[in-house]
Amino acid sequence: QVQLVESGGGLVQPGGSLRLSCAASGFTWDDHAIGWFRQAPGKEREGVACINRSDGSTYYADAVKGRFTISRDNPKNTAYLQMNSLKPEDTAVYYCAADMDLYCSGLMMPGDFTSWGQGTQVTVSS
Known about the structure:
- The structure is a single chain.
- By secondary structure, the protein is mainly beta.
- The chain has no helices and eleven strands.
- Strands 2, 4, 5, 6, 9, 10 and 11 form a seven-stranded mixed sheet that branches.
- It is globular, with a radius of gyration of 13 Å.
- 35% of the residues are buried.
- The mean pLDDT is 95.
């Protein structure tokens, strides 16, 4: 059974940092691209960052480029999203997602990913 579990969310002040984790089980981790999405209240789910399976190359949405870093630890079946210089507009539920056939090279769409976690809340507020 495929399972993705996010953790690390919370309340942080503007300018602060958080590191989200995505722990996976039930599938061959190395064969999957991993993505992070977020969804704020009343807004559509948007892609934030993606890391590919084969070469470890990454893609970032313009809104987070230079502030967020995606990484993966294959022996631990875990992906991370390091978020620095957080802004109030980063407030959202953050989801990790996985897909075996995807190669991330541009705009991320939720329909591109087949497996999803339940999400973790990130709130940036003073």
